[in-house]
Amino acid sequence: MKHAALSARMGGLRSSAIRDLLTLTARPDVISLAGGLPDPNFIPRERISRAAADALGDASSVQYGETSGLRHLREVIAARESVKIGRTLESSDVVVTHGSQQGLSLLAQVLLDAGDTVVVEDPAYTGALQVFRTAQATLAAVPVDADGMDTEVLEAKLAGGLRPKVVHTVSNFHNPRGSVLSLERRAHLAKLADTYGFWILEDDPYGELYFDGPPPLPVAALSDRVIRLSSASKVLAPALRVGWLHGDRRVCEAVELIKQGADLCGSSLTQQIAADLFSDTAWFDAHLDKLRASYGNRAKALVSALEAGFGDSARFSPVRGGMFCWMESLEPVDTAAVLDVAVEHGVAFVPGAAFGVDADLSLAARLCFATYPETVLEDAARKLCDAFRDASAQSRG
């Protein structure tokens, strides 16, 4: 029986390497540093339960809602984002999405035609790569270092004739690199957007999770050509599936129109829960303080154990916030080949090649420190060090 052909856009798509890896490493005896998963013990289930009970007292919580999101939630988000970007947002400037990943997908549909050029970071957030490949965009990679996207490289590419429609950046505590886009580069990127007329998608799910102090001004504070995205997943609960975006009113109205065809509306129930938690300022500020302190301690424990175990054979990115540490082996051992050995040792990670666009990241790896307490992370570091030693010895034959 002959099957009907799938659409042309399916030809270049592949499953996320990280999602596939999570399936392979879901063994109970494996400490997985592979996922970007919050510790479930830090998800405020009791407070969510109370908010859910209150929400269910209102019949509207189980009914269809506005496509753009619950008005009260948009008001709360607008107030919080206004403080960050230094200008007043109205609730009508905010679109609530089914997680920030949906926001990214909707923006691609609004802003991109097949063949349009999108600048992505290298290494890149894999979810963004999937979105842009689905949109049949042409990807142009710009390297990321300790200060975020190298905007000097971007400027040189623009001077050479590159004309992107969109530039995507994870500006704070980059996934996977862990870096923070410096204030100078933020200003430079904003200036380039104003000069060359491209849109910046400022993807910021980790910005609240800082350890030593808040990151610089959002890029959205420096240009009106920025669409800013964020999410409740990392600070409240992934299962709420609450994200949002704001920016140019015409773009947001177009996103809302496309969203009508995608899901009509989000969950009125989870949006009421999120609005309750975000608007309880004293509770939420204390909750964030706990997350910052706890994740900061975990980051220090993991990096200290890794540095002690690996010595001069690897280097690790400074961790200033977020959920990830970036590792670079200084010995010629492919981290993709190490992974199988590591799993047998009882630890897992994501090889750097999963995030690569043009760069050779075969010696790199992403490690998540958020999911486990310090003692487990120290054990994971020992297992990882042993796995790299064994894999290196095997490669030498």
TrEMBL record:
<keyword id="KW-0663">Pyridoxal phosphate</keyword>
<dbReference type="InterPro" id="IPR015421">
    <property type="entry name" value="PyrdxlP-dep_Trfase_major"/>
</dbReference>
<keyword id="KW-0808">Transferase</keyword>
<dbReference type="Pfam" id="PF00155">
    <property type="entry name" value="Aminotran_1_2"/>
</dbReference>
<dbReference type="GO" id="GO:0008483">
    <property type="term" value="F:transaminase activity"/>
</dbReference>
<feature type="domain" description="Aminotransferase class I/classII large">
    <location>
        <begin position="42"/>
        <end position="384"/>
    </location>
</feature>
<dbReference type="InterPro" id="IPR015424">
    <property type="entry name" value="PyrdxlP-dep_Trfase"/>
</dbReference>
<dbReference type="InterPro" id="IPR050859">
    <property type="entry name" value="Class-I_PLP-dep_aminotransf"/>
</dbReference>
<dbReference type="InterPro" id="IPR015422">
    <property type="entry name" value="PyrdxlP-dep_Trfase_small"/>
</dbReference>
<dbReference type="InterPro" id="IPR004839">
    <property type="entry name" value="Aminotransferase_I/II_large"/>
</dbReference>
<protein>
    <submittedName>
        <fullName>PLP-dependent aminotransferase family protein</fullName>
    </submittedName>
</protein>
<keyword id="KW-0032">Aminotransferase</keyword>
